Amino acid sequence: MTTDTQHLGSPDLPGSPGPDSRPCGYPEGVALPGLATSRRGLLRGAALGGLSLSVGGAVVSQAPIAAAAETSAIVVVSLRGGSDGLSMVVPHGDQAYYDARPNTGVAADRLLMKDAMFGFHPSMSALQGLWDAGSLAAVHAAGLPVANRSHFSAMEEIEDADPGSAARVGWLNRLLGTDALTSPLQGLSVGGRPLAMVGPEPTMTVGDVNGVKVSGASSLSNSDPRFGSLRQAWKGSVPGRAAMRDGMSAALTAASDFQAVKDVSTTATFPNSSLGRALAIVSRTVRADVGSSVFTVDSGNWDMHTDIGSSSSGWMVNNARDLAASIAAFFTDLGDAASRVTLVTISEFGRRVAENANRGFDHGWGNVMLVAGAGVRGGQYHGSWPGLATGVNADLSVTTDYRSVLAEVVAARTAASTATVFPGFRRESVGVMTGQ
Prior knowledge:
Elements: H1 39-49, E1 51-55, E2 58-60, E3 73-79, H2 85-88, E4 89-90, H3 95-100, E5 119-120, H4 128-132, E6 136-143, H5 151-160, H6 171-176, E7 188-190, E8 205-206, H7 225-235, H8 242-257, H9 274-288, E9 294-299, H10 315-334, E10 341-346, E11 367-373, E12 380-382, E13 400-401, H11 402-413, H12 418-421
Parallel strand pairs: 1-7, 3-9, 3-10, 6-12, 6-13, 7-8
Antiparallel strand pairs: 1-2, 2-9, 4-5, 6-11, 10-11
Helix pairs in contact: 1-8, 7-8, 9-10
Organism: Nocardioides bruguierae
InterPro entries: DUF1501, TAT_signal
Protein name: DUF1501 domain-containing protein
């Protein structure tokens, strides 16, 4: 049997059982919640909550949307390693950008989707259609309210989104807890479970669409003797173990229900990358309509300290092209379902303004967030531009707290209270979502 894992070294919750404590018959790929969890939490976690699908280095996680918007889906794409937002969405209208990057700056005449200040990296042309359709926007100078240049610390702070709290609960897990149990698969992860999904609402993990299985069973249906007998065993009375019984029964149901994803095929051409394969699974899951509603996809590595490359080849070109092509293929593949899906990108921090001696960029602060899909006020750039300095330690200052962007998406696409999802935080208007 397998156990749930954490991406980039984030430890699991204390008290969660290890491999030797997994009951016989628990579906592979399903994370068994801690036994101290409430009966409701156990049922939610085993039945709906964190199914994880592993595709290469990408991770996809889902959390729930409240009943008023239960058919909507939020996809959070995390660019692990600290992406250089100044290369992805170039502030060509700020001369300090070119002064600080004499060897790595992207020429203004090569940029796409330009206005007087910003333009997309030329390798991101796959996003042009979404931009022209008003379904893609960018929020620049976004990030943590105080600079944090440690990958793991900043990642934890971003995904916890509750500064000062001693509770180890991610913002997606809090979102998961705002809704009543309506689907066994509202929380879904592909690969290791990210910190954003950690908390009292447990999750499930699988390796791929074929990764949810019961040892000894050839199929997850009552037609298979092994699976059928387990369903019957956990359906009956288990003295003193009601929560375990209900959790096990719900987990078996979730594993069975997820098989519908196998029957959905892709119609778009996705990049043959971990990100492309992961977003293909997200699209299949959305269109399978198994009750999944919030996803996260991890993409890396964006830690470009050296050799970022030129504007036509190299590390940044490859990553940016893959990101753009994967997102474009995702929305194409969704078809009519695209009208209920919103995608947002985030990274733990940006990079310094000035290039270093190795033609790369050291850890910085502010960054760009992309928002695409349903409800987006697209075809434009949002946020307040602070201007750039050119010193060796100069940062892109943050003028938009990243939680304001996420909270605006949550408020526009769900019935959840943003005060619950982001405790103690008062969001400011960003204007990237319609009606907000």
